[in-house]
Structures are given as C-alpha cells and as structure tokens.
C-alpha cells in the first residue's frame, strides 16, 4: 500500500481552499492507502508565537477534518507535536538543507514580508520541518493544494541528498491530486487564492453561517452586465465559475456557461444560485463541526490513537535513518 501524508496548520478557521485543495482528497484516499494526516501545530509557531488560541484551534482543525468525512479509525489523525521523532529527523535534515535555497523559497519570502519583526530560523527552515513530516512515514503521495508544490520539490531534494550520502531510505514524495492539476481555490475578490489571513470577506470558511455565506458571495466582484458573445472571461468571472464548478450541479454550471457565451448572463442570478449551493455545501460541515469540537474527551482519544499509529511508523523510519547515518555505536 502506498503511504499518504499531509498536514494543515492550526492558524485559524479552515476555508474552502483547505477543503478542495486538501481535505477532500484525504477523504477520497482514506480507504485505499495507508494515511497519515496531522495538525501542524509546530509549524504554526513560526508565525503565531502567541498560543492563547492554540488549543481551541487544534481542536477545531481536528473536528473540521472529521466533519468533512475523515475517519480517525481508518487513518492516523494526529498532532505534529505529539510525534517527537519529527524533531529528530528535522534536525538531521537541517544539515542537508542549504541557506541559499531556503532563502529563495516563495513562502519564506512572503511570510518574511508579512512579519518583518519576526523572521526567525524556524520560518527559514519551515520546508525542512515539512519534509521531516513527510519523510518520517516514507510517504510517496502528498495531497495538497497548488501553493505547496515548491515545498514538495524541496522535500524530494532533501530526501535524495540523504539517500545519496547515506544510502537509500526515502522514496520520492509528490504532490497528489488524482492525476489532475493541483487545486487553487480563488478568493472572492478576484485577487489571488483564498487564504486564512488575507481579506476575511473574500474567504469562505467552513464555519460561516448561512447569511454570512450569502453576503460574501453576493459581494464577489462581477461585471455590471453581459459582455459581447464569446469574449474571453476576465479572471474574476472565471473565479466565480470555478467556485460554481466546485459546489453546484453540472447542469447549473452548463446553463450559466452558455448564458455567458450568448451574452445573456445575469450575474445577480448566478451569484444567488452560487450562494444557495454554497450554503447547502457548507452547512452540514459547520453543524457537524459544532457537535464535535467541544467534545474534549473524544478529541483526546482521537489524538492519542493517531499519535500511537504515527509514532510506530516514525520509529521504524528513524531506526533506518540512524543506521544509515552510522549513529549506532554498539
Ligand atoms: P496550510 O495550513 O496553509 O493549508 C492546508 C492545506 O490547504 C491547501 N490550501 C489550498 N488549496 C487550494 N486552494 C487554496 N486557496 C488553498 N489554501 C490552502 C494547502 O495547499 C494545504 O494542502 N505547509 C502546509 C502544512 C504542512 C504540510 C506538512 C502539508 C505541514 N507539514 C506535510 C503536507 C505535508 C501548510 O501551510 O498548509
């Protein structure tokens, strides 16, 4: 069985991008593969040193994963900080990661710009910790969104360097979306991708109430009326279609597409339809999350069970790593 690994930071509420970029595929993969999914709580500390909300955010991310259909009996669902072997592998991989390549990482440059007063070494070596998460289980498939592609390339580089220097331990890991292009869910304001920290009104959270979802969708940028028949779509209109393809029925998408091509589209109607389909998509996830996220005993059981499975796999890898390096003196 191929090994699957992925993670989500506990920096706040999960959104539609996290769902369609990552969690949807976790759920699709859980039956067939050996899966390790975790809450990247240590990664969170690179940008969120204040831990007042950490516990409730970790609980929420776990609950949201389960509410989306992840079955903690079928996969290892755990917290990064509970698997201590991660820290050991991270330390070792740091000796195989070069300062220059770390400084060139897009996410590092973005985050350094966003937090100029806290450009810490953890932020610089963020991709090394992520590589440790993946290599720890010798995973080969990593379901993630488009924004994580560069990190996967770095993971392969670190793993290959280890293999060349010390002997074959790690397989190559690839970002995975069932052979399709990796997903990038756009934000509602037509600028960039949906994210946790950017414009809150342009992001649809899995926790948003019905009316808030409607309000956000209705505010999304569109044109005043139809353009000439068969003109190319501007990005922000394409984004609305993209979101519609994710949550609406195929015949609905088809209708609005042909309206667009015939210059007969009414964007108000399109957004109303999208808003209702979005409400129907998000509501059950939100309600299920609410019923789980305060059940501390249940979540504790999940975390303990997940950590036990993950540490077993981690321990086996670390044996091989120590042996390959020569960290065995008797
Ligand atoms: P994070 O917490 O930023 O995001 C979690 C997952 O959601 C995906 N995602 C998106 N996909 C499509 N469109 C969007 N707008 C969008 N926004 C977010 C991300 O691609 C990701 O799959 N570094 C990782 C966490 C991590 C990790 C790992 C992932 C730590 N260790 C090991 C995989 C394997 C991150 O910051 O994800």
From TrEMBL:
EC number(s) per entry: 6.1.1.2
InterPro entries: aa-tRNA-synth_Ic, Rossmann-like_a/b/a_fold, Trp-tRNA-ligase, Trp-tRNA-ligase_bac-type, Trp-tRNA_synthetase
A Pfam family the protein falls into: tRNA-synt_1b
Highest rank taxon of the organism: Bacteria
EC category name: ligase
UniProt KW keywords: Aminoacyl-tRNA synthetase, ATP-binding, Cytoplasm, Ligase, Nucleotide-binding, Protein biosynthesis
'HIGH' region, short sequence motif: residues: 10-18
GO molecular function, one term: ligase activity
Residues annotated to bind ATP: 9-11, 17-18, 145-147, 185, 193-197
Main location: cytoplasm
Record has Aminoacyl-tRNA synthetase as a keyword: yes
Binding site for L-tryptophan: 133
Localization in the cell: Cytoplasm
Motif 'KMSKS' region, chain ranges: 193-197
Subunit and partners: Homodimer.
Family affiliation: Belongs to the class-I aminoacyl-tRNA synthetase family.
Function comment: Catalyzes the attachment of tryptophan to tRNA(Trp).
Protein name as catalogued: Tryptophan--tRNA ligase
